[in-house]
Design a protein that fits this description.
Elements lengths: L2 H23 L22 E8 L7 H15 L7 E5 L3 E7 L4 H8 L5 E4 L5 E4 L3 E10 L5 E9 L1 H13 L6 E4 L2 E4 L11 E4 L5 H14 L5 E9 L5 H26 L1 H23 L6 H30 L4 H33 L3 H33 L23 H25 L8 H4 L1 E7 L6 H16 L5 E4 L5 E6 L4 H15 L7 E5 L5 H26 L2 H25 L5 H29 L7 H14 L1 H21 L2 H35 L6
């Protein structure tokens, strides 16, 4: 790279960083478009809309109908926010909480009024009802003249498909009326027999008409008929303090990581710091651009992205130093370092990206939200490391930073015999993994709960209290929650404010009648609350059985996809098997921590586990990439040679493993130290997972591969 081009690169990157920083800090236009303050925040961080529906005509609907309706509504409100929650309240009510919005009326209009939906013939005969409609989506297709037309695409379940096939076969040229709450909302004419369970309604005036009809059909396809009971705007669950402390912790953590990189890697560390800053502002701008709802689990995805961005830079600069130590010129070392680091960076990031894509497609609720944030973070971290860092490093070299002293030279390290101690490592791992099930067994026999499940998993009691003054979330945390905890013994209390009023919604474990009475008396005694205004309802879990099953299936499929990718990429299934086993080790260690420390298991639990999966797989692949490189092209190696290769590969990547774990640890530790209690409860398991991931990548994954390689030899050997 010539000097003039180098100046241009530095100026361009500086301007790009400046533009993104300005956008993040101020934004453009009167509303500050693109500014970080306009990022859509989840219900836990900023509040949103709460809507309560009540079942029409049946005070005791079946549990199956309620579960089906809740599940369908959850899938529907995911369109407003990936962090929307739907749960049962009492016996015949369903509550919907949608973060990041404040206009309940608009939501109600767009969501539609749940009511009775039927497909009828001209004589009033019901062909199918709404419960037999699997999906209804507005779309566009080409007519006979190749012109685009707005349509509504319908899919029926098996029973509905059979009934609709019979009706359309017998009524070609006639209309089938779509009746919603007694009113005809559409009367499409049957053009031909529809036997495959898929139908298209044409004749829409515009896209809005198509969307309105599709929305009415979707909301009418619920198992139960619902009516709106109440709607209101609720405040954040964590409060402004949680946001401000998280931002402060993030800034401090990022600053410490940048300082660490500059001290350890000198000039390349400066390059890494610039690319990390660029990654951070790019992430904030992208969250705005794609209107991604940011919640506490989403922050985990961003933290993992920072860790992976640091990891990529560490891999690159460690390679550059190795090449300098081998006698290469600085210019050649930079070129070769980036080239040799590329495979490890791509394999690690692509593997994690595969998991994010699978989770995004198959997951629901917080899982989907986490997946979106993680995928975005991975792509941006790769861009910052492979593009920005590369151009900056070459530009600085062209500008005169060509002496070895600016880059450092690694000290010679003797190969450490990790395999010699593999039995000790495995024993430590087994003891730690077993401790989880043991603790869960002890707790299940004592308290009846293996894990400390939160409201999201177990459900509980929602108490609506109208105070005599308007308390902030911070004041509720300080004054109200201790009183509630005294009565209930529940340490995992959730409290949200109803905007524009003195009402506070307090969610706790399920309370008995006596406990509800005692709580009302205490609130009256301490705050002068009128007991007659206090209402309490039992609520279901926000993480339904279906959502849990979806999450588990998604994780299993993601693990299989990662295994297949590693198998194909490394041409040896033993690499994939070792990586997945190391991943399982890390997950079980974190689970053990939840069991022993009695950390609350809620939505953040899922995000934490997924973060650890992403971190673990990336750490193992870096070592496997070095093993693959050291194996060379030869297909045959003795057991002793393989042992030496594994030990050398782990030793060569040991610095990377330590530095990456340390920098990620610093970021999460800042959250733990400065955060509010709920943030600390989220950060603590992540810290344990980072430590477990560092241990498994260095001490477990390599030895596992060696054992599989020597004990299960391929046929061509």
């Amino acid at each position: 790279m010539k000097k003039n081009k180098a100046i241009g690169v530095v100026v361009a990157i500086a301007l790009f960083l400046g533009l993104l920083t300005y956008t993040t800090a101020v934004g453009f236009g009167p509303t500050g478009t693109g500014a970080a303050k306009n990022i859509t925040l989840g219900l836990d961080l900023s509040g949103g809309v709460s809507i309560t529906y009540e079942v029409v005509g049946d005070e005791n609907p079946s549990a199956e109908d309620m579960k089906d309706t809740i599940y369908k509504l959850q899938q529907r409100v995911d369109g407003y926010s990936t962090e929307a929650q739907v749960y049962q309240e009492g016996t015949n009510r369903i509550n919907i909480e949608i973060p990041g919005v404040s206009d309940a009326n608009t939501i109600l209009e767009e969501l539609g009024k749940p009511g009775s939906l039927q497909f009828q013939l001209e004589d009033g005969t019901v062909v199918v009802d709404g419960s037999q409609v699997a999906s209804a989506e507005a779309g566009v297709q080409q007519d006979n003249l190749k012109n685009n037309e707005n349509v509504v695409k319908l899919e029926f379940d098996s029973a509905g498909a059979a009934a609709f096939a019979t009706a359309t076969s017998e009524n070609i040229g006639k209309s089938i009326y779509i009746v919603y709450d007694g009113d005809v909302i559409s009367a499409p004419t049957v053009q031909s027999a529809i036997t495959d369970g898929s139908a298209v309604i044409t004749g829409m005036a515009d896209a809005q008409e198509a969307e309105n009809l599709a929305s009415s059909i979707r909301i009418g396809s619920l198992s139960l008929e619902l009516q709106e009971l109440r709607s209101n705007v609720v405040g954040a669950q964590l409060g402004e303090a949680a946001i401000s402390t998280s931002l402060k912790a993030g800034a401090i953590g990022l600053a410490l990581v940048c300082i660490f990189m500059m001290v350890v890697y000198l000039l390349p560390g400066v390059v890494a710091a610039i690319s990390l800053l660029l990654y951070t502002v790019l992430t904030l701008v992208t969250l705005n651009a794609f209107d991604i709802t940011l919640t506490l689990p989403g922050i985990a995805g961003i933290i993992l992205g920072i860790g992976m961005a640091v990891d990529a830079n560490v891999i690159i600069y460690a390679r550059i130093r190795e090449e300098i130590a081998a006698g290469k010129s600085v210019k050649s070392a930079i070129d070769i370092g980036f080239k040799k680091a590329l495979s490890a960076i791509l394999d690690g990031n692509i593997t994690t990206l595969i998991a994010a894509i699978v989770l995004g497609i198959m997951g629901t609720g917080s899982v989907k939200g986490f997946a979106y944030t993680l995928a975005m973070s991975i792509i941006l971290s790769m861009f910052s490391a492979l593009v920005i860092s590369r151009y900056l490093a070459k530009a600085f070299y062209a500008l005169g930073f060509q002496d070895v002293k600016y880059y450092g030279c690694p000290k010679k390290h003797n190969t450490i015999d990790f395999l010699k101690h593999k039995k000790v490592f495995f024993a430590i791992a087994i003891v730690c993994m077993i401790s989880g099930p043991v603790a869960m067994l002890i707790h299940s026999q004592g308290s009846g709960k293996a894990l400390n499940y939160s409201l999201e998993f177990m459900g509980g009691t929602s108490t609506n209290v109208t105070f005599n003054e308007d308390y902030s979330i911070e004041e509720i945390d300080e004054k109200v929650k201790p009183v509630v905890q005294e009565v209930t013994g529940d340490a995992n209390i959730q409290a949200t404010k109803v905007s524009g009023s003195n009402q506070v919604i307090i969610k706790t474990r399920e309370l008995s009648l006596d406990e509800r009475t005692e709580l009302s008396q205490k609130l009256n005694e301490k705050f002068g609350v009128d007991e007659s205004t206090i209402t309490a309802e039992s609520i279901s879990s926000t993480v339904s059985n279906e959502m849990r099953q979806d999450a588990i299936v998604a994780v299993i499929i993601a693990a299989i996809c990662m295994l297949i990718y590693i198998w194909l990429r490394f041409k040896d299934i033993r690499f994939g098997a070792s990586a997945v086993l190391a991943l399982l080790h890390d997950v079980l260690i974190v689970l053990a921590f939840y069991a022993i420390a009695r950390i609350s298991v809620g939505n953040t639990f899922i995000a934490c586990m997924l973060t650890i999966i992403g971190y673990s797989i990336n750490a193992s692949i870096v070592i496997f990439d070095r093993i693959r490189e050291n194996l060379g092209s030869s297909k045959k190696h003795s057991d002793e040679v393989l042992k030496e290769i594994v030990n050398r590969s782990i030793t060569q990547t040991l610095t990377r493993s330590i530095y990456t774990s340390l920098t990620t640890f610093i970021t999460i530790a800042a959250l733990f130290i400065l955060g509010v209690p709920s943030i600390r409860e989220f950060a603590a398991p992540l810290i344990v997972g980072i430590v477990a991931g560092a241990f498994s990548s260095v001490c477990i994954s390599g030895p596992l591969w060696y054992i599989l390689k020597t004990k299960f030899k391929s046929k061509n050997k």
